Amino acid sequence: MCAGTPTAVNLDGVASLCLDAGMGTSSSTNTAPTAAGAAGRVGLAAAAVGLGAFLLFLAEPLVARRLLPRFGGTATVWTACVLCFQWLLLAGYAAAHGLRRLAPAPRRAVQAGVLAVAAGSLLVPELAVGVGAPGDSPVIPVVATVLGTIGLPFLVLSSTGPNVARILGGTPYRLYALSNAASLVALLAYPVWVEPALTLSEQLRAWGLAFGVYAVLLAVLLRFDVAPAAGRVPSTGDAAVRRPWGRWIVLSAVPSGLFLAVTHHLSTNIAPMPLLWVVPLALYLVTLILAFDHPRWYRRHLFVGLLPWALALMAVSQTNAVVHGDLIPLVGMVCLSLFWACMTCHGELARIRPAEDGLTAFFLAIAFGGALGGLFVGAVAPVVFDGPHELPLLVLGTAAAVWAAWRADPPSDFRVDRVFGAFLALFFGLYACVAVAIDLNVRAKSLVRVRSPYGVIRVSELTVGGEGIRSLIHGTIRHGAQRTSPAHRHEPATYYMPTSGAGRALAAAQARGPVSIGVLGLGAGSLADWARAGDRIRFYEIDPEMERIARTWFFALPEARAEVTVAIGDGRALLAAEAPQGFDVLLLDAFSSDAIPTHLLTREAFEVYRRHLAPGGVLAVHISNRFVGLEPVLAAEAAAGRWAARLVSDSAGENWMQFASRWVLLAASAEAFDAALLEGSVPLSDPPLARPFTDDHAPLWSLFKL
Known about the structure:
The protein is of the alpha/beta class. The protein has helices at residues 32-67, 76-99, 104-121, 139-158, 160-168, 173-197, 200-222, 239-242, 245-269, 274-293, 300-316, 320-323, 327-351, 359-384, 390-408, 414-445, 501-510, 544-553, 571-577, 603-611, 631-639, 675-679, and strands at residues 8-11, 15-18, 446-452, 455-464, 467-474, 477-483, 516-520, 536-541, 563-568, 583-588, 613-622, 644-650, 661-667. It is 53% helix and 12% strand.
């Protein structure tokens, strides 16, 4: 017998081995040569499973990071990618489940053929897939792009575990844990080592070479696929009838949806970047590893008993007080509660795992549940809900799923059962009431609330000192505010006060005569209040809902004194396609909640901006950000001798209409900064990045304010 959870593995009918963490040991010295050969096959299988899982989960952030600039840097790109990957995983498990019905020879032929085509597809140039019309959800084009680039290799990788399990025989749940461990290593390696060390082009080449090694390993392993085709499950037993398909699917779907909703929550309020993508997914995988490695990791009474408190912590992390606070408390609260919720669901799932005859069906159910969770968060919720309701619903869904699993297999202690049931029911009721009350309160204070692929936008109005103040809130951040009285509605406010970097740059340009102004990011259109008769101002806005709201509920655009145009689409892509605009001032204020999309801060992007500046023009970059310090990115551009740079820091005013802000002003030469600009600004103080951001290399995580 082996330590841990022993699993009998028969290879060629001559060796009986015991798997422990994917390694084989001989049960008899008399069969040493045969057992050694069988152990080699087990080692080969472990290598194929480990490398396949590593490549599988390394591909996810790599592909999503590559697609971000094409689709405007929105957090929805990651959600759409994960949704596609989950359904490809389901397809891989379904293919493995179907292949077991074939005879060995045709089964090997099919797998070898698909493997060869998948390897060859990496040599084919990437298909150009359009991004759709402005404002359309990027989900469909992202999915189409993923399928057209890495779809077939990903499908092959996703079927590795079930196929190897069939070749080895037995119930290799420790091999399943090994697969998840390799996936975890890949996820953690990407933001910490791969992304900072390698450009995207180098990452893709390395991934392709590693896939070639994996293909060789799997091709050798397929030679030992001699197991007969699986027949119909005998009807004499109850196994087929009693398989808890519903619990398998629900206990897989809820944590899958929960980690995706948490990822979207963090990406929207901090930044859409690989580090914040992989942390929730890594925690999700850790719970799978622990739950299926050994029963000792899941103490049922401990995890289930403390689950309400973990879910309550998740609820607290969604409040404005926490979202607007420091980075570490926000991420820490979310990660702790996510780990506890996923561990509880996966622990309950591991308790009802089947024996060998139900192995591929079990994997198929897990993949289907995971795909359903991703579908709910990535495709259904953005269409059905006008606010970010999927996270509260999944918190309640976690409580309901665990309660159902508990009731299906209650403990022998009646009092423990009753106490937990009452506790969870109390939490469920209180949380539902609080969530509904908060949503009703937000609705009562909102003139309008809409949800687009780029976030939740709402307009609120309140009275301060007898005067109405109307605010635009994108996610959890106020992105514009105007007084409603005719006498004051066009006075510059918020981040655009006369003492701000934007205000100083505009005033200096206007002192020389009529000006041409460009703005990346519309918001409420407040910068139009700076434009005078004879001036020209052109906005670039990725979200058409933002323009509709700015024209309907605010006053700057409809009552502008200057010529105002709004171009809908990704600002960088639109500028790259346009003839030089000759802007005297070009302002970069393209926020998605609290994060500037990285592709707007690369060297290639700054070359686009430079082309559109008039001689002596100034590029003003808004870098006010709670979590990411962007000054070193701009300092790197200035240090390369490409720009003259000045920093303007503006403190908050006496009333809440005057926001603190930080702007960096860039110009082709220092002569563009007049005496007033020099007096109100200082040189950049943060050291520049050693390696400037480019489209091929932009590791944003190094700029986090921890």
